[in-house]
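[stage:ingest] chain + small molecule (protoporphyrin IX containing FE)
[stage:ingest] validated
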Amino acid sequence: MMTGKVTTPRLSFGPEVTPYSAYARIDALHALQRPRTGVSAERSFVVATQVMELLFGLLRHEWTQAQQALRADDLDGAAGALRHALNTQDVLAGSWDLLATLTPMEFGSFRDELGEASGFQSYAYRYLEFLLGNKSAAMLAPYIGMPEVHTGLTVALGSPSLYDDVLAVLHRRGLPIPLSHLDRDWTRPYEPHAEVQKAWQIVYTSPGYGDLMELAELLLDTAERAIRWRQRHLTAVRRAMGAKPGTGGSSGLSWLRRAAEQDLFPELWTVRDEL
Ligand code: HEM
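[stage:predict] done
[stage:export] tokens:
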């Protein structure tokens, strides 16, 4: 049982903004929601977009930490960062609930305000796809007018993905990763290789690789959540606007379906045929 005197929080801050507002920039944060119509669904749409953008940025930070740990052969550090990121991914996928009931009539009532704006132009999301190994030089083009973003994404495109860094760890542990997968043109999308699958088979079936197996399973947890986000997006799109073309200029659902099918960490799935 709790004992002792109960004290209320401080109530008075004089002419100053509250320390809470000052610390977390709360005024600036709320000022960012500027729906253009009076439709309340638009407010949910703007908040959902901004919440997801913030989480994309957080996830990039967490995956970059995992990557740095992998490069230093700190597998505990990498596993910790990936595990933390799983929670962020769960919140991200759950954020679709904010739009779960959006009807075509509601979406249609503010869609014109978007003009050509589309989540497709999200550079924070593109960083994540590059980190997952889904590389495409064409995806840099939208940011020609945003030099800082363009430079950052160019670096990410030409750097190893999380999975590439994991394969380098396997190599340093003496597993047979082909040279073509240790030093290659990182701007190219990942190509699966039978030797890589064999290396994973050794990890899963031989003693002494428990930490690498744990890492493999964490990568699959990561992939599952990335796929879940893509699928929830697809479902939200289908429900809110059917198969109409997207504001970003694509054919909509059919384009998104193809994008959502991009495989992640392929040999971690195919090795299961052999286990
Ligand atoms: C129900 C509301 C939404 C609809 C109808 C919708 C529709 C679409 C469509 C049609 C595309 C394909 C590109 C285009 O032609 O525009 C797209 C791409 C995309 N959207 Fe959405 N979207 C919605 C909500 C969101 C939200 C809230 C986010 C969060 C930031 C988001 C992020 C993205 C991303 C990242 C892509 C690119 C996907 C990729 O490259 O694989 N979307 N969206």
